[in-house]
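User: Here's a structure from my thesis project, written as structure tokens. My advisor, Dr. K., wants to see whether a designed sequence matches the one we expressed. Can you design one independently, without my sequence as a hint?
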């Protein structure tokens, strides 16, 4: 297993957690309640979702699930603290890149950056 699922079983939920923490911290002292509130809301929504998905995945992949779940944490990538063998290098593919929409993301990113460029001097 490689990629984000080699580190945690629910990488999208980890992303949600980090985004919420970032927004709560960005609120600063104006909203000192934002971080505890986000933690509570995250736990109320994501904890049951993680349990449900884990149960569903264990039934869908009965052979692979036990060992993967035993060595891969649900949310926090604590495995980063221990040494693991390096995953095999992934091969880049133009076809896969196009199917994933990466050129579109690059165009959107460039379009977002254009207004930030300094105006030409006359």
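Assistant: Designed independently from the structure alone:
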């Amino acid at each position: 297993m490689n990629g984000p699922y080699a580190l945690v079983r629910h990488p999208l939920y980890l992303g949600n957690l980090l985004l919420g923490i970032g927004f709560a911290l960005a609120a600063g002292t104006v909203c000192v309640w934002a971080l505890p509130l986000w933690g509570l809301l995250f736990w109320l929504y994501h904890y049951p979702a993680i349990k449900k998905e884990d149960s569903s995945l264990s039934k869908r992949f009965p052979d692979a699930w036990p060992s993967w779940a035993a060595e891969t944490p649900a949310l926090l990538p604590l495995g980063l603290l221990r040494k693991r063998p390096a995953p095999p290098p992934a091969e880049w593919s133009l076809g896969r890149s196009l199917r994933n929409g990466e050129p579109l993301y690059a165009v959107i990113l460039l379009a977002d950056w254009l207004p930030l460029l300094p105006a030409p001097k006359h």
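When you compare it with your expressed construct, this may help: The CA atoms of residues 51 and 68 lie 15 Å apart.
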